[in-house]
């Protein structure tokens, strides 16, 4: 039986022998029926079981119930099939900031049998064209406020572009039924394609099945958050980023909870939402947690019970400062677009400050050397993981072979594992600085610098040097820009050598007003290099 009428995505999946091993599927919560559309569980069942009037999505301007989302998603599904000519298996691009209509479109595409390709709002026409050409995307739905770049896209694959937040999609929806029979898809049919960071050249697109979407809801949230229907989620990551999709849509809706969406989530707006709407669970990046800590005293965040950080490693200083200010413990986690969501994390019962955590339910992880052999306890090496999800690059056999070795997913991160099984971040595989024979992890230098009372943010990279091979170079944002002097550089260097191994000190320091970051809050170190 074929999965879809348009089988492009499935035809370009890596062959079974190139895919990772899937393990722990004997756990009953991960057993899914052969036929499964994930929208049935995430949305439709709430209506069938009488929860339609429960709040589902809030913003500063509006509130939607589960019934509201269900009806709008059904109407959009009718539009896709009847007016826009969507065939099952067609890829549909969504271009939007985090808002209720984006969520309705996301569900509508899966209801109609399409495959979702959600993108970041800041992408430009050239990047969007690359994504559309790679995935042979036939349809796009775009928030009208982001129309300018969409109008510049030129691709032979794109048949239809529909805009919302103006009259176009609204008019098409008006006379459509508010019920829809969801496409009868298989649990191992592709539901979404996620593009990994970087869309220059030929980007990597990774596929995830309908069962993958539901299984991650039984992994990280059950392990770390213990959500109930009373929880209210919020956060800053875009829904085009799988960290944000999970934390702000999939997890709350799997548990019948609600989500608070913010289109441009500044630290002040996050804190305002937590205070005014009694948010209980917040997802954001380490850089945001650092800034929020400096402002939290001005807000009432007593409703907040769980704080989640991902995107890049959480410095111990940020964790400690937040804990000192609020009494709350930030849950760190590592995930990947290739794995769909977080696979190593902690909960309040097993947290070690500074450690990323342990492999959560549904996953196992270990540290190996370049040949794939296990390394000794506390020795740094490559982090590999396997479990209920795994890397499935479409049409990229070369990259698939790099990411999957001997059935394990190779994350590209350097970690060590201690005697109790906790994983500690050492460096990104490409963030090791080798200077005069010393291996220096950029994150180690950053962690020290962040303890200096004058430093607000920093990013460390290696600079090529004939004599030493590489130099440790620190880009630093000071709390007070007026102090950015040569004397301050000398002071920081001397101070560093007193509090940490002198060979790690930054021989080059640049002061800057801001660090370059992605929409998800990750520092773009490649720009600094």
From TrEMBL:
Domain (AMP-dependent synthetase/ligase) ranges: 51-388
Family matches, as Gene3D superfamilies: 3.30.300.30, N-terminal domain of ligase-like (3.40.50.12780)
Pfam families membership: AMP-binding, AMP-binding_C
PANTHER family per UniProt: ACETYL-COA SYNTHETASE, ANTHRANILATE--COA LIGASE
Residues covered by the AMP-binding enzyme C-terminal domain: 444-522
Nucleus recorded as keyword: no
Name of the protein this chain belongs to: AMP-binding protein
Keyword annotations of the record: Ligase, Membrane, Transmembrane, Transmembrane helix
The keyword Cell division is assigned to this record: no
InterPro entries in the cross-refs: AMP-bd_C, AMP-bd_C_sf, AMP-binding_CS, AMP-dep_synth/lig_dom, ANL_N_sf
Superkingdom classification of source: Bacteria
Species this chain originates from: Flavobacterium buctense
Membrane-spanning ranges: 101-123
């Amino acid at each position: 039986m074929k999965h879809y009428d348009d089988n492009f995505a499935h035809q370009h999946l890596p062959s079974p022998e190139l895919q990772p091993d899937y393990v722990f599927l004997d756990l009953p919560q991960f057993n899914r029926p052969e036929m499964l559309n994930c929208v049935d569980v995430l949305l439709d069942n709430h209506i069938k079981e009488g929860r339609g009037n429960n709040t589902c999505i809030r913003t500063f301007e509006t509130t939607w119930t589960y019934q509201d989302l269900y009806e709008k998603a059904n109407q959009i599904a009718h539009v896709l099939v009847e007016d826009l000519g969507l065939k099952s298996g067609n890829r549909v691009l969504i271009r939007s900031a985090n808002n209720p209509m984006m969520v309705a479109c996301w569900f509508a595409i899966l209801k109609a049998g399409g495959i979702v390709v959600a993108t970041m709002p800041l992408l430009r026409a050239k990047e969007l064209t690359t994504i559309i050409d790679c995935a042979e995307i036939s349809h796009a739905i775009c928030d009208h406020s982001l129309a300018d770049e969409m109008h510049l896209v030129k691709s032979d694959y794109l048949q239809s572009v529909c805009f919302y937040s103006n009259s176009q999609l609204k008019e098409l929806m008006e006379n459509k039924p508010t019920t829809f029979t969801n496409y009868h898809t298989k649990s191992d049919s592709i539901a979404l394609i996620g593009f990994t960071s970087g869309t220059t050249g030929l980007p990597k697109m990774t596929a995830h099945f309908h069962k993958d979407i539901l299984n991650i809801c039984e992994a990280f949230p059950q392990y770390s958050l213990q959500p109930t229907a009373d929880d209210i989620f919020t956060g800053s990551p875009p829904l085009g980023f799988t960290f944000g999709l999970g934390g702000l849509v999939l997890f709350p809706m799997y548990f019948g909870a609600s989500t608070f969406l913010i289109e441009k989530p500044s630290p002040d707006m996050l804190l305002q939402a937590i205070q005014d709407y009694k948010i209980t669970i917040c997802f954001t990046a380490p850089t945001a947690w650092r800034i929020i800590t400096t402002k939290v005293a001005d807000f009432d965040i007593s409703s907040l019970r769980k704080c989640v950080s991902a995107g890049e490693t959480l410095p111990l200083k940020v964790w400690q400062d937040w804990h000192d200010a609020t009494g709350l413990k930030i849950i760190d986690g590592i995930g990947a677009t290739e794995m769909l969501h977080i696979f190593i994390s902690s909960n309040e019962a097993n947290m070690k400050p500074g450690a990323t955590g342990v492999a959560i339910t549904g996953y196992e992880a270990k540290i190996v050397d370049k040949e794939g052999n296990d390394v000794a306890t506390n020795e740094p090496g490559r982090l590999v993981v396997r479990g209920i999800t795994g890397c499935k690059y479409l049409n990229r056999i070369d990259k698939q072979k790099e990411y999957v070795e001997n059935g394990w997913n190779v994350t590209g991160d350097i970690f060590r594992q201690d005697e109790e099984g906790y994983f500690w971040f050492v460096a990104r595989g490409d963030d090791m600085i080798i200077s005069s024979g010393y291996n220096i992890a950029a994150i180690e230098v950053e962690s020290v610098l962040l303890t200096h009372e004058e430093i607000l943010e920093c990013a460390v990279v290696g600079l090529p040097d004939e004599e030493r091979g590489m130099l440790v170079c620190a880009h630093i944002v000071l709390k007070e820009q007026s102090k950015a002097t040569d004397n301050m550089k000398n002071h920081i260097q001397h101070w560093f050598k007193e509090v940490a191994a002198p060979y790690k000190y930054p021989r080059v320091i640049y002061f800057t007003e801001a660090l370059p970051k992605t929409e998800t809050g990750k520092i773009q170190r490649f720009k600094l290099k």
